[in-house]
Amino acid sequence: MEQELEQFTAIYEQVTSFLVNYSFQLIGAIIVFLIGIVVARKVSNIVLRLCQKKQLDVTLSNFAANTVRLIIITMTAIIALGKLGISITPFVAAVGALSLGAGLAVQGLLSNYGAGLNIILARPFVVGDTISVQGVSGIVKEVHLAYTVLADEDEVKITIPNKHIVGEIIHNSQNDTIAELGVGIAYHSDPKLAGKVILEALKAVPGISDARTPQIGIENFGDSSIDIGIRFWVKTEVRYEAQYQANMAIYDALKAASIDIPFPQREVKMLS
Q1: Residue-level pLDDT at 105
Q2: Which of 65, 84, 207, 214 could form a disulfide with 242 if both were Cys (CB 3.0 to 4.6 A apart)?
Q3: Domain covering 176-256, topology
Q4: DSSP the chain
Q5: What is the pLDDT of residues 205-224, one digit of tens each?
Q6: Where are the domains of the chain?
Q7: The whole model's pTM is what?
Q8: How do residues 89-146 score in pLDDT, each as one tens digit?
């Protein structure tokens, strides 16, 4: 009992001595750190508004604002530790050693962060673009340091680690997606008239982009038909819906114009 009482007394004296000697430094360090957090938040908001005013990409704007805030908070923490008389040199050495070990342990994760930083700075695509990479395609919804989120027409979210994006071939079609259709007409039909009929039919299909004129022409001369190729740009959100409606509109328009869509035929001659 006496030994425990002596230990408690010793601890109490040490705590009291620390508070007496370093109370002002401790209060000053806390005040400095709190001021730093407030300043970091305000400066971060200013940087974000400035980036938005300059109409920079939302991902790049958020990255710049968060980076500025992190730098200010780190500098404030160093100043606060200095107020307490704590040298940061050992901490820097320890952080360096831990970073080396952590880097070897989470090499894949760090590669994702490095690739994400490359995407944010180089900006091969931005939020709202339609991209195709690694066999998947969709609209870019979010760009993070570790991963990028796409969404397709069915509202399925596709998460791609950034290391699988950087260094790969990326198809970026901005807001639209190309749709390619085809239809065969009989050889006795006029392909020029068919092209005009198809073009008029496509104008009534919702979702087709007005920014680019559809491309319609003879794609191939088949055994039983003249194959008409059709290419047009469509909003990614309604790609398949517009494509199905376009097929139906083309069929109805060709039928109304008395342009035949032949089935495969084979001519057989009997020799006497």
Answers
A1: 47
A2: 207
A3: Alpha-Beta Plaits (3.30.70)
A4: -HHHHHHHHHHHHHHHHHHHHHHHHHHHHHHHHHHHHHHHHHHHHHHHHHHHHTT--HHHHHHHHHHHHHHHHHHHHHHHHHHTT--SHHHHHHHHHHHHHHHHHTHHHHHHHHHHHHHHHH-SS-TT-EEEETTEEEEEEEE-SSEEEEE-TT--EEEEEGGGTTTS--EE-TTEEEEEEEEEE-TTS-HHHHHHHHHHHHHTSTTB-SSS--EEEEEEE-SSSEEEEEEEEEEGGGHHHHHHHHHHHHHHHHHHTT---PPP--------
A5: 988 888 888 999 999 998 88
A6: 2-86, 124-172, 176-256
A7: 0.58
A8: 666 665 566 655 555 445 566 788 788 888 888 888 888 899 999 888 899 998 888 8
| The token pair that represents 11 in the structure block | 């601890």
Res. 31: pLDDT tops 90? no
Question: Where does 124-172 sit in CATH, by number?
Answer: 2.30.30.60
| Nearest to 165, CA basis, from 184, 137, 205, 188 | 137
